[in-house]
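Researcher: Next sequence.
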Amino acid sequence: MAVNSSKMMERRGFLKAGLCTAGVMAGGLAGLAEAGPAIRARFAKLDEVLKRPVLKKELFSSPVIIESVELLHLEGKYLCRVRSRDGAEGISVAHSTMDRLYPIFLRNLRPFFLGKDARELDLILDKVYIYDFNFRLNGLALGLPLATIEFAILDMLGRMAGKSVSDLIGERQRAEVDVYMATEWREKPVDESLRLISEAVGEHDIHALKIKVGGLMFMTTDMYAVGPAGRTEKIVPLVRKTFGDRMTLYADANGFYDLPGALRIGRLLQEYKFAYFEEPVMFDHLEEIRELTQRLPIPIANGEQDYSFYGFRWLLAHDGLDVVQPDNYYFGGMIRSVKVARMAAAFGKTIIPHMSGGGLGFFYNVQLVSALPNAGLHHEFKSFRTHVRFECRTAPLKVVNGRIKVPTGPGFGVDLDPDWVRKHEAVRG
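Model: Next structure:
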């Protein structure tokens, strides 16, 4: 995704058209009640998008009753296995934090899925938030185990229908997905960071790269630490110089900056032709995100940490975001992510999903992206390293000319080693 040089003109046109009223601009979130008819119409349009089902229920002529939902573990890692009353089976690889969240999987989510018709997965994913007051756990704590169950159900349904997951939740738009190398190391000195970034890029045939900017307290036990002073100002021009103009560059602040700091760094990234600025401020600071989007030419991306449709809905209605970034796991699965993509598409915006969790996250992500008409130019990739023992007959574990081939087999197109799966034990609870 190239930097949009006409973005500021579009923003001015949006404001002149009255789509963001003075009451809302001045009062922020508190001013929603005073929004003009154009804003209300945009909200209504997004609400209609959210009502549209995602799963292609018509592929299944009879009910697919979920008989069992198991959580399996081996050496601190987890799988989810779902079986239907008729003996169909699907398996997913859980997120790496399931060791902390398995009680929610077992007590808050699994009971609701048992006995349900998997063809109604859209409705199930809505109602499970209400069941047993699960919305009180809203966030990654609920989204991660929920996505793990959804992935297993989609795998089962795909195998039953002889379809890939991307064909269950949309129409396949692309056979290959362009990827960017996602790098870390913001806690390292600039020279060491640059060396590690170069090594990571060198492992694969990569044409796009994302770096970390700013600093975060979690990098140290010192509660007052915020990261090395001036590091971002040094590394941004060095990364551009090192990789040249042919490398597409992205930057991720993980919510580090306040509004003035984000404006300053956004201008620096613009100067060095970065293609977007991800999470410049905290993910739920909606007014600040909107202001950055309207004041900076560089596209603004946000959504990795979001756990409900509300933030995306508000920002899109107010033309306050350029790129939506729900995470398959964090956000509670692919069906919910597709709905965010559709909301973005309704106003000409892009989706570039965040990817997390290890395991088979790279294959899960490319299945989603391949089904999205408004997917961005490059998508997250870290490596093919995984603890999972599997076989993929339709796609190699290789980046070729910056792209990963999307598996075309049924379900996720991945067959786990049955002997390895049998070594896992069921988690009781």
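Model: Residues 15-28 have pLDDT under 50 and may be disordered. Residues 57-166+419-426 form a domain with the Enolase-like; domain 1 fold (CATH 3.30.390.10).
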